[in-house]
Every structure is written in structure tokens, then in C-alpha cells.
Amino acid sequence: AGTDVPMILQEDAPADLPTPSGPMRAYTYRPVATGRYPGLVLFSEIFQQTGPIRRTAALLAGHGFVVVVPEIF
Fold first, then answer.
1. Helices (H), the chain
2. How far apart are the C-alpha atoms of 50 and 63, rounded to whole Å?
């Protein structure tokens, strides 16, 4: 069996996504290694991207996911 070693990850610059009610800021975390990875949308609490949300997104990205954290409020 292989070992479950977290991957090196990167946090992309925030992106403003167009919506019918105006731009929505979104943060993306992804593995640095090239390849195709499954994606996740991580909805945050009302306080948007707090420390725990950022750490959770980084943890998931470190295990091979592309994680987008939108500011939905």
C-alpha cells in the first residue's frame, strides 16, 4: 500500500466571478503538481474565508483536490 503524503499546494490570487447580482470573490487552492484533480466547492460561514476555512481548503488541496471557496454573502 502507498503512503498518504500531502501534496505541495498553491493558493491562487482571488478571482471575481461575474453573477447576475454583481461580482463574487472566490479563492482557489490546488496542488502544484500538474495533472487533473477532482474539484470541490467549500462554502464558508457568514464571515467568509476565516482561518479555519482557509486551513480546511488547504488540507483538502494537499490531498489532491482543487478547492474553490466563494464569498457567497
1. 51-62
2. 20
Q: 48 pairs with which residues across the strands?
A: 45
- Split at pLDDT 50, 70, 90, the class of 7 is confident
Residue 5: pLDDT band (50, 70, 90) is low
CA-CA distance, 39 to 60, in Å (whole number)?
10
Mean pLDDT across 33-37: 92
* CA proximity to 48, closest of 26, 66, 29: 26
Question: Which of 8, 28, 19 is CA-nearest to residue 69?
Answer: 28
* Residue closest to 57 by CA, chosen among 37, 72, 43, 71: 43
